[in-house]
Each structure stands twice: as structure tokens, then as C-alpha cells.
From TrEMBL:
Residues spanning the signal sequence: none
Annotated InterPro entries: CCR4/nocturin_mRNA_transcr (IPR050410), Endo/exonu/phosph_ase_sf (IPR036691), Endo/exonuclease/phosphatase (IPR005135)
Protein name, per record: Endonuclease/exonuclease/phosphatase domain-containing protein
Sequence ranges assigned to domain Endonuclease/exonuclease/phosphatase in this UniProt record: 62-405
GO molecular function: 3'-5'-RNA exonuclease activity
One Pfam family per UniProt: Exo_endo_phos
């Protein structure tokens, strides 16, 4: 969308050499088979294996770690090879904003949004019809934000998550997540869509912490997206985005995508998850018990997590202890599972066998993701550069990319618009 004019880029299908259908603007000519990055007008284009004519009721989601300026300035050695002018916030923001609107998203999920610079985003995006939902970390100055096009969506509920949980030592880091429940305005009887964005701990040595963080987040998604009409129950369509600081073969990503992992790291620190009542099924125990009893309403007040929008438990320790004794096995062992049925927008390896990259961490790696549940159909995605192409781009931020991460984007449609009866 061109700023100030309301124009929408025209995306045209064409066929690449390896048979994949690419959806691109008239200026974009990228293809997996082009090894020389200098031959590419742009490093990202829209691609799809099966383009649906018209994209009826479709919507686009973009996820982007925009690199908080205060973090850049606190760690200048990480950017010593960048052109100095590309590190100035005003220069970076202009490029970040252009990257966002060029993807023409309806939902924007951002990580590392510095609170002091949030108005830079809101002042521009609100003028073209977006509303904002932001969650700042408790101590650090940045957080996560969800923007949505208000002409297309109405936010009917929202939730924030803080991963710092005083009763569980492994959850002692200042990371957060935001969840929004959105409904299509022109389809009032359609199912709501749950959109989630997060930024997990960076420390490469602490996969155990990231796994604990995603365990808590999956439990929160489970309770926020769950419905029970009496005749039907399940989860609303879910889109989970963010910087997970975890590569595709990591325990974190495997748990999300496969719904199950068995690994000693799950219980390595011997944390007693009964202290916050989140089971190894990535569920809040009281909600699990509630669903077993076929109650149509969920009593969120009996969860035990701190810093929750729903508040803390009103039950005594003795009452809660007596309720969970029969479910003791759901807190033991080295397995984790969930029932949210996620797929990844990206394959993480291109058709020519080359790995994709989203950021540079000693080498080019993928740590940013868009996951979606099985009630959504992926129509197209904004391609990611291969690792070899990313190397040719040079250090980030650069002349074309305003952050040290690459933006991700995808178009979805709802497989079934109707609300369950």
C-alpha cells in the first residue's frame, strides 16, 4: 500500500524454473534457482504452490523483529560492519515501515518494539487504518505489538503473558507475549481468529528456558482459543508468530510443529510445574479438569500463573493440592505435548536444498516463524532468502532492510467461516 494514497500493490502470478508459482509485484523477479543474489531485483517475493482465484475472505499476516534501537546502541560491536547511517533510527524506521506496507498486511506482529518509539509506528499505521495492541516487558524497554486493519477486523478480546513466574525458578526472564482475538467485520457469524506474537529468550545456552516459556505460552493459547458450545468444542483458528530464538530442529520448534517431544531437557532443572499448575500437556490443570467435567464455561480464576490478565487463584493451597493429586502424572516425566495442531508457513529448506535464513547469529539461521493451525489454509507466503543469498546481502541493517532480521509474511483463508453450533 503506497503511503498516503491507499494504493495496493498488484501481485502477478508467474512460473519459476522449478515449477513453483510465484506471486510478485512487477518489480520482483526472485526465484530459488537464481544463485547470484546480484541478479535479483528483490530478495523476497510472494510464492504459492496452489493459488486460489480471487483469495475470497483472505487476509495477510506479517511478523517482524524490528530491532530495538536501545539494544542496537547497547551492543554496537554486533553492527561494526554495517554502514553507520543504516544504524540511525530514523533511517532504519523508514525502511522498516516501507518493508511493512509493501507486504500489504492486514495484521502486523512486531517484536522488539521499543516503548519510547512505539508512537513512530502507531502515528503512521493509524493514519492508514490500523489499531494497536502492545505489551511491554516489565524491566526492559521493548515489547511485542499486534496491529490490525480496523476496516477488516474487530478485536473482541486480548490477553498478555509474562514469562517471569516467581514460583517457578526456570521462568525468571523478562519476556512477554500478546494474544488478540479478531473477527472479520464483514463476516459477523464467522469464527474468530486468535493471533499471537512473542519473543523468547536469546541466550543460546538456555534452550531449557525457551522450552519452559513456550510451554507456558501454549497453555495460555489453549485457554484463550478454546471454545465449547455444548455440541462442539475445540480451538479457534490460531496464528502464532515471533522470534523464538530457536532453529527448526530445536526442541521448541519440534514441540510446536509436531505437538510432542520427549527429551531429558524437559525436566532437567527439576522445576515443580505444580507451582503454576501447567501440565506436561501444556494445559492449565484446572481447565483440563473443567473440560473433563463437560462444563461449558471455564473458571480462569483458578489458574496459578502470576501476572495474568485473568488474575490469580482464589483457592487455598490445600484446596488446590487436593484437586491435583489425582493428576500427579501430568507433571512428571520428560515428555511435553499439546493439541493445537500447528504447521509452519515455511519449509526452512528451499526446493533446491538450500537452507533459509531470517537473521545472523554467528551464521545465518532461521529463528523467526509464522505457525498456523489446521482451520486455516495457507494461500501464499513471502519468500525468505537462502543462506547463500543472505550472505550476499551483507550485514544487516543495510540499505534495503531496516532490521537485523528478515520480515515474514503469509496470506491465509479460513477453511470454514461458520461458527460451530
Amino acid at each position: 500500500m503506497a503511503e498516503g494514497t491507499g494504493e495496493v500493490p498488484v501481485w502477478t502470478p508467474y512460473q519459476s524454473d522449478d515449477g513453483i508459482i510465484l506471486i510478485s509485484s512487477s518489480s520482483s523477479t526472485c526465484s530459488d534457482d537464481l544463485d547470484d543474489y546480484s541478479q535479483k531485483h528483490e530478495y523476497q517475493c510472494w510464492e504459492s504452490d496452489n493459488v486460489t482465484s480471487g483469495f475470497s475472505d483472505s487476509f495477510r499476516v506479517l511478523s517482524y523483529n524490528v530491532l530495538a534501537q536501545n539494544l542496537l546502541e547497547c551492543h554496537p560491536y554486533l553492527y561494526k560492519d554495517c554502514t553507520p547511517t543504516n544504524l540511525i533510527w530514523e533511517e532504519r524506521f523508514s525502511k522498516i515501515y516501507n518493508q511493512i506496507i509493501n507486504a500489504n498486511p492486514d495484521i502486523i506482529c512486531l517484536q522488539e518494539v521499543e516503548e519510547a518509539r512505539l508512537t513512530d509506528f502507531t502515528s503512521k499505521l493509524e493514519t492508514i487504518g490500523f489499531k494497536t495492541f502492545f505489551k511491554k516487558k516489565k524491566i526492559k524497554q521493548d515489547g511485542c505489538a499486534i496491529f490490525f486493519r480496523s476496516s477488516k477486523f474487530e478485536m473482541i478480546d486480548n490477553l498478555t503473558v509474562e514469562f517471569h513466574q516467581p514460583n517457578l525458578p526456570i521462568l525468571n526472564r523478562d519476556n512477554v507475549a500478546c494474544l488478540a482475538k479478531l473477527k472479520l467485520r464483514d463476516k459477523p457469524d464467522s469464527m474468530p481468529i486468535v493471533v499471537v506474537t512473542t519473543h523468547l529468550l536469546y541466550n543460546p545456552r538456555r534452550m531449557d528456558v525457551r522450552l519452559a516459556q513456550i510451554r507456558l505460552l501454549l497453555a495460555e493459547i489453549d485457554r484463550f482459543a478454546y471454545y465449547n458450545t455444548g455440541r462442539n468444542r475445540g480451538h479457534w483458528p490460531i496464528i502464532l508468530t515471533g522470534d523464538f530464538n530457536s532453529q527448526p530442529n530445536s526442541q521448541v520448534v519440534r514441540l510446536i510443529r509436531e505437538g510432542y517431544i520427549s527429551d531429558p531437557i524437559v525436566n532437567e532443572d527439576q522445576s515443580d510445574w505444580r507451582n503454576i499448575n501447567v501440565t506436561n500437556h501444556c494445559e492449565h490443570l484446572p481447565l483440563h479438569m473443567n473440560r473433563l467435567s463437560e462444563n461449558l464455561t471455564s473458571d480462569f480464576s483458578i489458574t496459578l500463573i502470576h501476572n495474568s490478565d485473568y488474575g490469580e487463584s482464589n483457592l487455598s493451597e490445600d484446596e488446590m493440592y487436593s484437586k491435583r493429586v489425582q493428576f500427579e502424572e501430568m507433571f512428571k516425566g520428560m515428555t511435553l505435548r499439546h493439541s493445537l495442531k500447528f504447521s509452519s508457513v515455511y519449509d526452512h529448506v528451499k526446493k533446491n536444498g538450500k537452507k533459509e535464513g531470517t537473521t545472523f547469529q554467528n551464521s545465518w539461521v532461521t529463528v523467526d516463524y509464522i505457525f498456523y493451525s489446521n482451520l486455516l489454509k495457507l494461500e501464499e507466503r513471502l519468500s525468505l532468502p537462502s543462506v547463500s543469498d543472505a550472505r550476499r546481502m551483507g550485514p544487516l541493517p543495510n540499505d534495503s532492510c531496516g532490521s537485523d532480521h528478515i520480515p515474514l509474511a503469509a496470506m491465509f483463508t479460513l477453511r470454514n467461516l461458520s461458527m460451530p453450533s
